[in-house]
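Methods — Computational structure assignment.
A single polypeptide chain was analysed. Its primary sequence is given first, followed by the predicted tertiary structure written as structure tokens.
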Amino acid sequence: MKMKTIMKTIIEIINILFFVLLFSCTASVRNDNSSKKRSCSTMEEKENLLQRVIDIPDIEQFYYKNKIEKEGLFIEKSDLIDDNLNLFKYGQKVNIVSREKLLKDEAVHYLNVYYSTPSDSIYYDNDIPKLITKKGRLPNKVYINLVYEAQGMECFAILRKKEECDWELIYTNVFER
């Protein structure tokens, strides 16, 4: 009888140790996964956001793929579009150029990408709208307009930050101008 009680107690202790060990391993794995989330710079955030915008499936039909593969895609430089962003379309680096250069070269096939309302996605600095928040990061939801004059196309899109540096397209509306 005494031996049975001792064995029962030993089995209970082993079960408790097993569950403690199992819980600590699970917590360790959870901590390892959360530490794998990387932070990214504002530049990387912009690149990922804008790459997602120029790759919107609903506007693929408007691109001149052969021309872009040969000459590249042009985007007008703006407050949102820095000329040192690394964006690609059909394997070609996207050319980011000033409005003056586009007009001088009489460029026809270029995109104008700018942020849109509502105003909760931007703030104003000396009456100039800025997409980057005062904390130096992009907001969690961004409203974008993309205009392709040569094709008479405009696209309104809303993107939401899924996690650091990763954007999810949650709404698009493509229409003719």
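Note: Residues 22 and 69 are 54 Å apart (CA to CA).
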